[in-house]
Structure formats: C-alpha cells, structure tokens
Amino acid sequence: MGIATRDSLRDWLRAPGSLSRRLARLGERFSVQLLRQRVAPFRAQERAALGLPPRGLTVVREVILRVDDEPLVWARSAVHQRATTGPWRALKGLGTRPLAHLLYDDDRIHRSELQPRRLSRHGHTRRHAARQWLAATGQVMPAQMLWSRNSVFSRSGAQLRVMELFAPALQRQRPGRPR
C-alpha cells in the first residue's frame, strides 16, 4: 500500500472515540458480524501490549463491522482470561453489539494512544483476517487492506487490546464526529 493510501486513511487511523459510532453515521444500518469469540493462547503482540506473562490464555473476539451490509472493518479484541470474571466480564455477553457499548459509556475506562500500523501482506494476522473475511463475506479481502490501528483500554487495572483493520472503501469517506 502506497503512501497515498495511508494518507487517505489517516483520518480513520487517528480518529478518537468510538469507531462504531463513526461508521454508523455513514449509512442507514450499522451492524456487527460476530465471527468468533473464544479462549486462545496469547499472541506475542497482544501479550506485549497487555503487559502479560509469556504463558496464559486470552479471550479473543473477532468481528466484521458493516455499514448497509458492506464490510468495512475487521476487528480483534483480546483480554486476559482472568479479566473476564472481573472488570471485563460484560465482554462475554456482548454478542453482536458493538464493543463501544462497553468502552465509551464508562468513565473508569481509559484508552491508550492510537497506534497506526501497516500489516505485513503475508503475516499471520493478515492471513488470519483474510480467511475470516472470505468465509464471512464470500469476497476476497482487498489486497490493499493492510492498515490497522491498535489501542489498549484499561479499567480497574485490567487491559483490553483492540486492533481494527480498515477496508480501502473507507478511503472515500470521512470519519466525521461520533454521536
């Protein structure tokens, strides 16, 4: 992906607040397609971002965010399994509701700085997202879909990492202000 593409997604990569609420303003119907939610071993980047030990388990939630049925974002959130019995227990029952319902309506939750990142075209995360994208949408994930952003949310000492991977279709849109 060239610098022009990154520049055209820059506003999305840096937009503060709720991505779900910003996306909802783009069309008539916003939806969350739950791909999977399960217990999984730590991934190195998640472990580092959450400050976790080398061994253990996370609860992982992977979704596609859609506007008017068009898939626009693949997202993955991860939290230490123990935190789902404490500060992040509501994550277990979230289903197809946006994660924003948990993150932005609670003053006790604090977000780290957004960290834009270009994924490797052949890296594990990109390949994993591409398999899920194809299975969920029937479409091959666009080759230009390489730009993501990461952030960590903290509540009562427990951290939740969110990674959002943006479809190139968002280049034509402005993020606007969330409601």
UniProtKB/TrEMBL annotation:
Ligand binding (substrate): 61, 99, 164
Catalysed reactions, semicolon-separated: chorismate = 4-hydroxybenzoate + pyruvate
GO MF terms, alphabetically ordered: lyase activity
Annotated signal sequence range: none
Subcellular location: Cytoplasm
EC number, as in UniProt: 4.1.3.40
Keywords of this entry: Cytoplasm, Lyase, Pyruvate, Ubiquinone biosynthesis
The protein's annotated pathway: Cofactor biosynthesis; ubiquinone biosynthesis
Domain of life from the UniProt record: Bacteria
InterPro entries, per database record: Chorismate--pyruvate_lyase (IPR007440), Chorismate_lyase_/UTRA_dom_sf (IPR028978)
Role played: Removes the pyruvyl group from chorismate, with concomitant aromatization of the ring, to provide 4-hydroxybenzoate (4HB) for the ubiquinone pathway.
The protein, known as: Probable chorismate pyruvate-lyase
